[in-house]
Target: Major facilitator superfamily (MFS) profile domain-containing protein
Amino acid sequence: MTTSTSSSGTENGTSLRSPLLLPPPPPPPPSKIPESESESAQEKLLIDDMLQRYCGEFGPWQLRHFVLTSLAWALEGFHTMVMIFADREPDWTCLGPGCDPQAKNVCGFEPGSWTWIGGADSSIVSQWGLVCENKYKVGLVQAMFFCGCMIGAGVFGHLSDSKLGRKGSLTIVCILNAIFGCSTAFSPNYLTYLLLRVLTGFSTGGVGLCAFVLATEPVGPTKRGAAGMSTFYFFSTGIVILSGIAYCFRSWHTLYIASSIPSILFVVFVLPFLPESPRWYLVRGKVNEAMKLMRSIAKYNGKHLPNGVVLALDEEESNKTNGKQDYKEELESKEAITGSIIDVIKSPVTRIRLFLAVVINFLCSVVYYGLSLNVVNLDTNIYFNVALNAVAEMPAFLITALLLDRFGRKPLAIGTIWFSGTFCLLGALVRGGGIWNTVRMVCGILGIFGMAGTYNLLFIYTTELFPTVVRNAALGCATQAAQMGAILAPFVVVLGGTLPFTVFAACGIVGGVFGYYLPETLNKPMYDTLTGMEEGEGEGEGV
Model:
């Protein structure tokens, strides 16, 4: 009876309320809840999207991180350009008969008739007598250093993507640089010196690469290009500082120690305060570490990252946006699109681009490193000249960045290469002696000014010439070609006289001619696949 009465009362109550207030609709069954609503409590974003929406693209956190990390570029400048001072041929003076004060070198002088100014330990040339028939050994040790750089860039580039990470790899190369650099100072003979310079090159080859990636990966997409181009300022600044260090420490033994100590200071006082890249954390499956770092970025920048926002890889973000289970299954079963340098060569579009990129990078590297090393042949103040060359590079970086999107990649590349080649040609035509030494020095400075702008541009230009699937392979070939040019440059410098300027002028002019056959990439899409590029650019057009 009680149940019946209660039921009747409920029905009457419902009947009385129905004209005034409709009862709430019954909740839908769990299987009918839209997927987007079920995921509203957790928003999945790519790192770039999270930086733009919540953390800030280039706030105080990124500025501090970028500056501290990019200090490693100055260390690379130390270990690379120290050879200019340590391997130079010092001045000499006559002591008696059998020596000609007007001679250009000491070849043919009687033993004991002359001596090195500054003592035997002022450079390796005076230490081990690397003159006349042994002069080639100076170019050899410099070339072998760049061979080490070429190998180290490949090894530590792989390690920074895998187990060691960006920070771990940067730590290792800086420690090795400090060890090998200090050990070089105690080389008892030429062969030991050669071996240690190769090892220093091996570790130096990974410094700039690891520092560049670690510094730019936490930067937002719209600021990353400008940040990446700014790293070269630290390299040039390092060369300027090295000139001052070399001026204070005239012995090559103490110079190597003084130029290696900053690497130790960087490892002890800077690296402990640098975090790992959030992108490396994410691709290695360490999502919690990546999210913790992103929250730190947002907090330091005065932003707020909501609790419901999490990082995702691009595949995961695509699944969330599409909201379809069958799409996820399709994505998991879809084979990855891969490519190799063989595919670059097979494609009619990228084949000629690769050839041109390799040749241009090789020629420009000969000019850039050749002009940097050739200061020993200018008969001017070597410390002032090296510092002036480095300072001349800085406005080139700025001008290139400002004109890049106005005139396009191709005209700017050709213009800067020919600018450098023209002044190298003028330097070859100018005779040495007196005021003409200063004129040749100015020609060299303007030549390196133009080539520094080209170097800054080629990295971006080469990246845009190839689709994503083979971009790293093609860029790797261009980088290897540039290292080969750096290996050749010391042998050109050893020729002395006007020959180096002649070779640099020829390389610059020919490089500009090859650049004429490259396509313009300004406002062009960055293709993902070779098929897409062939369809977009036209398979039969060649470039």
